[in-house]
Amino acid sequence: MLETKPLELIYHGPTNISQVLLPYSASPLKVLLSGFRSRCHIVIKGAFPDHRVQQGLDQLIHLYTLAGFPNEELQTISSQILIQHQNLQPQENPLVTILVTLLNGCFFLVLWFRCFRSCIISVPNNLVLLSL
Known about the structure:
56% of the residues lie in helices and 9% in strands. By secondary structure, it is mainly alpha-helical. It has a domain at 17-88. A two-stranded antiparallel sheet has the order 1-2. Strand 1 (118-123) and strand 2 form a beta hairpin.
């Protein structure tokens, strides 16, 4: 059976302001936003497809904005983290993939021929030894 609906992973984060640190606390802004940063990483790594990632980030930004954090700061942080994760993903080039596959196949054949210089083929009532 072929699945026609794509897989989606949705991030359901905190929904109550009491679940985040408030910007009026005595800690520095970097410390206060450490939970936001951590949650952004979780959304980016866990949500799928891309529109669900953006939906999760928007949800976090909305919650932290309601708590009193500046929207621009939150947008900047989430964008930086998103770019950081995109840069960590390997860039796939179809030509490179094909070339690597061919080279791996050639390497395997050379290795096989070096290890098995002769092989035995069984034929009914005969045993033939081939040297390579």
